[in-house]
Structure prediction request, 226 residues.
Amino acid sequence: AQRVTQPEKLLSVFKGAPVELKCNYSYSGSPELFWYVQYSRQRLQLLLRHISRESIKGFTADLNKGETSFHLKKPFAQEEDSAMYYCALRDPLGFGADGLTFGKGTHLIIQP
Amino acid sequence: NAGVTQTPKFQVLKTGQSMTLQCAQDMNHEYMSWYRQDPGMGLRLIHYSVGAGITDQGEVPNGYNVSRSTTEDFPLRLLSAAPSQTSVYFCASSDRQLLNEKLFFGSGTQLSVL
Prediction:
């Protein structure tokens, strides 16, 4: 069974400091990995996906198959980054539950 | 396009009452799903559907029913509400035909069962 672990429920950093939200997964194949974000009073939305190798709002995430990790990083945190962040995994070959498996989420607070 | 629309936004029920959470999408997505969001538990899949007439159970299906009579609508029914079903519910949809396609989420329904 696929699993996603976000070890930190809460992460608080000062504005301008680097941010790293950890995500580790358990999956036997080649997963599809995503980061979703939920800003206050807004709906969940996709932040980035590993296949795109993109940088969104200054965030990047690299898939490390050796460490089975997909950590989300930003070199300089901004106050508007405060939000709930969810790491998610999807089995591209799965014919069962096609839904994403989400981690439990990390609440990121950026202090001024 | 309105995207994914959920109603109601808030609901309070008494134990034993039944109700239906509505979800509609106007993007012609095949895949639709329901999640519940609980503190410290993240998002957990309740039920999902890969097309009209096809539904299946997710991780936490007990106490919930779904149906998919049209591509657009995917209602979630609570048969006999229990306090353990107090949660925030999210409906989501995606186009399964596209590799790595993202989920589009509704704005959520906050449900309290007393």
